[in-house]
Amino acid sequence: MAEKYVYCFGDGQADGTVDQKNLLGGKGANLAEMSRLGIPVPPGFTITTDVCTYYYDHNEEYPKSLAQEIDVALNKMESSMGAEFGSTSNPLLVSVRSGARVSMPGMMDTVLNLGLNDETVLGLAERSQDARFAFDSYRRFIQMYGNVVMGMDGENFEHILERAKQRRGITLDTELTVDDLQGMVKSYKEVIAEKTGKTFPQDPKEQLWGAITAVFGSWNNKRAIDYRRINNIPGLWGTAVNVQAMVFGNMGQDCGTGVAFTRDPSTGEKVFFGEYLVNAQGEDVVAGIRTPQPICRKPEMPKHVQTMEDVFPKAYKTLVDIYQKLEAHYRDMQDIEFTIQQGKVWMLQTRNGKRTAQAAVKLAVDMVAEKLITEKESISRVSPEQLDQLLHPRLDKNVEGDVLTKGLPASPGAAVGAVVFNSDEAEQRAAQGDSVILVRLETSPEDIHGMHAAAGVLTARGGMTSHAAVVARGMGKCCVTGASEVQIDYENNRFFVGNTVIHANDVITLDGSSGEVFKGPIPTIQPELSGDFGIFMDWCDKYRTLKIRTNADTPEDCLTARNFGAEGIGLCRTEHMFFEPDRIEAVRRMIVAENPAAREKALAELLPFQKSDFKEILRTMDGFPVNIRLLDPPLHEFLPHGKKEIAELANSLSIPLERLNATLENLHEANPMLGHRGCRLAITYPEIYKMQARAIMEAACELVKDESINVIPEIMIPLVGIDKELEQIRGEVNGICQEVVKAMGVKVEYHIGTMIELPRAALTADTIAQHADFFSFGTNDLTQMTFGVSRDDANKFLPYYVDTEILPRDPFSVLDQAGVGQLIKIGLEKGLSTNPQLKVGVCGEHGGEPSSIAFFHHLGLNYVSCSPYRVPAARLAAAQVNLQS
Amino acid sequence: MAEKYVYCFGDGQADGTVDQKNLLGGKGANLAEMSRLGIPVPPGFTITTDVCTYYYDHNEEYPKSLAQEIDVALNKMESSMGAEFGSTSNPLLVSVRSGARVSMPGMMDTVLNLGLNDETVLGLAERSQDARFAFDSYRRFIQMYGNVVMGMDGENFEHILERAKQRRGITLDTELTVDDLQGMVKSYKEVIAEKTGKTFPQDPKEQLWGAITAVFGSWNNKRAIDYRRINNIPGLWGTAVNVQAMVFGNMGQDCGTGVAFTRDPSTGEKVFFGEYLVNAQGEDVVAGIRTPQPICRKPEMPKHVQTMEDVFPKAYKTLVDIYQKLEAHYRDMQDIEFTIQQGKVWMLQTRNGKRTAQAAVKLAVDMVAEKLITEKESISRVSPEQLDQLLHPRLDKNVEGDVLTKGLPASPGAAVGAVVFNSDEAEQRAAQGDSVILVRLETSPEDIHGMHAAAGVLTARGGMTSHAAVVARGMGKCCVTGASEVQIDYENNRFFVGNTVIHANDVITLDGSSGEVFKGPIPTIQPELSGDFGIFMDWCDKYRTLKIRTNADTPEDCLTARNFGAEGIGLCRTEHMFFEPDRIEAVRRMIVAENPAAREKALAELLPFQKSDFKEILRTMDGFPVNIRLLDPPLHEFLPHGKKEIAELANSLSIPLERLNATLENLHEANPMLGHRGCRLAITYPEIYKMQARAIMEAACELVKDESINVIPEIMIPLVGIDKELEQIRGEVNGICQEVVKAMGVKVEYHIGTMIELPRAALTADTIAQHADFFSFGTNDLTQMTFGVSRDDANKFLPYYVDTEILPRDPFSVLDQAGVGQLIKIGLEKGLSTNPQLKVGVCGEHGGEPSSIAFFHHLGLNYVSCSPYRVPAARLAAAQVNLQS
Predict the structure, then answer these.
(1) What is the pTM of this model?
(2) What ipTM was assigned to the predicted interfaces of this complex?
(3) Does A785 contact B757 at a Cβ distance shorter than 8 Å?
(4) Residue B752's closest CA among B768, B730, B767, B728?
(5) CB distance from B785 to chain A under 8 Å?
(6) Inter-chain residue contact A819 with B764, CB threshold 8 Å
């Protein structure tokens, strides 16, 4: 049997189902499913993603049987609509749209009104009794086709339109007469011939094939590739193409078009939520060119607002029936598009709606309560990335900000940053570590990289479903849209709000939850988490086995993490404590010490500081293990580098400048990452770790003795590569621990182990494990060593590697399972082979990244550790992977 | 059965054999063997190395049965010698010496004349009819015992000796009378009591146990530990202790002592070779205090020289019989020690003699010719380290040097360096990369580290078998001894030769083959290798399977390596070619280029240079593969760093200084080792490798076309960590190669492959191998990444790691098999799993190190590559491992 490449839908029937998204794309599968549900869908057909794959595999040619299948499907559409493709009396017009497995809003091309030509336009005029509509549709079609299929620059057409309006002294498109439009059609065709050397095709079939090829071609345009990269969508998936009978929302005042969500995608509230435009085509709503009106009335709305409920009461009722049917069927919030043609509602699309993190959690919890889904299912309804958003700081409402203007609260959260006016600059500045706010009249798919890089987005135009709003919500990026007071002067890199001028690089603050825009920076505070959040996180904990710890160096961070559900500290770095102003001088005296005695004297001064730090942290983490890493960085990191600072230091340490300079010279390293640091310091200067071990154990013993705190200190020796390093240091550290425990006369459960962050440590983990109570894989350094890539220097080539897909992802964000993961597997297996009691966790950045968490779960690690704010997302990711496996 | 701890020998019998070296030590086993052969050996017994191990394992206590075993053995000695231990009439005196599994000359303690006390000394005086001899022996014994067993500083005794001589106004020890000696005995005992608070023991048994314990204790003294570290001897082996009846070479003019080799240990010539002293104890010869006389007469000797042949003709004949018997029995050159007591020859020791590289080769080849050994056996008679020596440059005999003085040609080779007068300084200076000549009156075991570090050693005293000479030959270090004109003024850091003053840091040159010492530096030339060398190397090639290539970047090095038997180039670095003065400016223009066009223009200028380099190298290596590594270092290495140089460069490149500074700033890296280098450069700047590929292929094609040279270029892409890096670059490079081959119209066999020098490359070798014709393990970088240790910075801790045995050896010299070796195994297996045709070699420093070569052989690699001078040693090592396996 030959392969089937074309799937029809319409009239309450369909060849495909919603389960065939891989083949039909999301849009095609949902159109088929809606049709099967008896929901009014303009008839059409879907050309499968297999055709896309075939097309790229076969030097951009199509399967032989495709043309015939399309002809059959077109015939079906014609009989369903009672119209004929290419007919001069009753022409069938079609749309041609992309539709990939997952939604890629606005990323690929679309052609509307296809089938119009110099003759069929007359048929449309007669049939619709509206010559103006017909010629306006034809004009739009030529423009779109010229642009999408024939590669014309849109400006050519804009220019003709502007000239036509100038000639007639009018400003609105709608004031153009039929004659004007006919003249423009002529001019459009002429400019196409002039610029491309080709004639605008009059044959509807030729038009159709041109559009299909353009849509398949758009799968590999730059913005689609960028989008896939950012959203991690494989290029191999391909897109489907949907050819569907046109229905018109712009045929008059009894027509319209709209976009809606079955619940509020920002808050998750169970209210029907959407926007519509009278007498408009669907693209007008999404593109944000006209600001649309709400579908439902809400109490707070001014009277003059004309909702769809008011304007089209019957169509509204139909729409409500449809949306309820859809939500019940899909058991998830739907994002729908519809058109009203002469009063009749046509559904153009339904899909699971994008939502904010807050909404995702509320929806998950509500739908369990409504018995729409199970607890286990609810876990999959929130993504770990979304949970991250929920925890980002918001504006401190107690601080009175200088409100500049107000737009729509398009995507919640808060953002403080310097104003930039274009996406390339946003990307560059962000790469330098700057926080920037991207300010645009409106955004377009070309701005994806800039939005991704910016801390927040502000647009002057567009509604809650405009490009900016939809994309920003998907990214979890704070966004304010439709701030209509904002007048942008791109040329001079500034914008005005009334008489106030904001220049590029001035700092502004966005509140994505209120839509307010503030001049200058405003402090941010932690989000208050809803009860739903707590319920949802409890479910996550119920369904996961991997423990989640946190990386925290201060009591404050420890408390935050505990509140977020952290089950211990996986990495407490001690070096940060050394930098506090009241300690750094003792640290420096320790470094310039010329003999062990002088070093010990300086260390003795540090002991009380370290001890009180550890005491606070251990107290905060009462009942949970606290993994403390002994000093790791090379000593030169604690010394100043500027000439003046060095002179001052020599002075304050009362040592000759030459001696300090000699010390600095002596400590200088060509490759500090591979230098004298970690446990190598302890081999050459055993006093340092001894002091730290004493501080930890004295703190622990006092807490047990004086406060009955349940302390579980874990002492971690960093950068071990050789079993004898750990054997020797463990002996020294344990000696101190025993001494303190004995002197204090209390029992304390403590463990001594090591970080596995060098390839050799993983490769020889069987010998190292004999001296370790635990392993903690330090995946940051392990990634650096395994790749031979310094994180500090990687920006010269690593972004380029990801852009050109030499690497699928930045290995410092997403664990490289093939290389680094393999080492972790070797290390784990070898470690357990000689020490089955070994506790094993991860404390690198990857401990908070969902795909990496899945990998660690499958390996059977005991825990991962991540930054406090990533703890909830990690809990969710751990539950998701456990439920999937 | 209780363990046997004591093995007796003497009277043509022995408990042990020569095969029991592990248990009896080398000296003990050989004494037993000699006794079995009927060779006159003073009777005695060996306390086994098991006792040493027991002693250190049991808190410095002895096995219970030891004391009784020793008593039995002593009785046996007494009856054999017809004397009694502790007898006042006919006392048995004994020596107590160490004897480890391998010889550690002078490293451990020895006590002679043990058994003397205030009473037995009288018995000895009567029995020998020589009171002076008896009291001199007693005095020496007390001094040695006080020093070795009781921990007295030798100066205490020297002081008493000096005072005694002053008082009597004499200068020679031999002028001391019996009274003087008796007085000194008294003073010696007094100073011991005063300094140690203990009485010098009169009980011979107590003396014996004290000496045994001192010898076992000396196994762990600093110089023994240093020696073991340098010579790679495990501390666990322990030493045996030999207790042997004293025979006296210093009982009068019919007595003597000597040391001899059965063949010439410097040249390997089949001549009996040795030195002796009349009326002396054995230690006098070795210590180099008196300059000894030759044993045999040679034609060139002045008439007045009194050889042993002249002085003791009968003993000489006996000695000749013995040495011939020993060499035939051991089938190897023997190093023997003997004593003549009142005309009778006693053998004190025989062992396989240390020899120079030249001698080792000659002995191996001669003994095969003599049918003493087989070819295969001969391979084991030369160590790869020795072969290294053979190839070191010698003095250019055509250059007239300024001869300062002449000493004995103690160890061949040539050395040029700055004068230093103590071993610590020699070590420090050498660590800084300086070439130094260690100048000493005489050397002692305390100087081992300095000799090891120095380029050459010059002593004013001592003969060809002095400490300096023996140790230097073992190390393959150039050494001139007994340069008696040299007068050293340690205090003022200078030495005189007549009126000439040489200060510390002045450069001198040694010729270890002639004994000449020159003022200033003298150019050195390559050694001419003997016919024996060629024969021996042919045997090595016959018995090895591993191919040996060389690392060479210049035609000269290539030629040297080819002459040394290299079977191809394993690593030709291209960056050195970039530094030539006529090229560096184009390189720099390439680096500061602001766009690909400017970069290509600069590269086009480099093309002819690279091409002519490659042409010369490929021509030199006619018929052999030449592996060329494309550019590897980060670009900033090609730019100057000094302010002045930067300004000059900006000027010569005609670019603003600010722009050059910006480029420098932009290229700066925190960890260049992990930075933008290797194939990462080619991903971001593909033009560079394309130029290099073109240069290689144009060179290759022209050689084939114009000169019918058989070229086999291998193009190596460095620092690959990701399969797609290699896939992409291979595509680009291969495109150029195909283009050139097509344009030139010739057939050239070329291969494209990669260096495996990142852990990730080894771990994912299965994917990488799909794009590689060959792998070359770059073990230098692989060691850096696997350990996370920068070679440039490791000197702060790595030497300490080796000193304290955290690491057994420096992993940059000797391959770390457990970690790095494991990665190589993984990489090899994975690589072959997807590409069974893959050719695999090694191009790191380890390619020339014998134990690493053995590892690579066992893994089944195709070849190793090492520096030109290490090629012969590598050929030998490859043969040895193949014959062992």
Answers:
(1) 0.79
(2) 0.78
(3) no
(4) B730
(5) yes
(6) yes
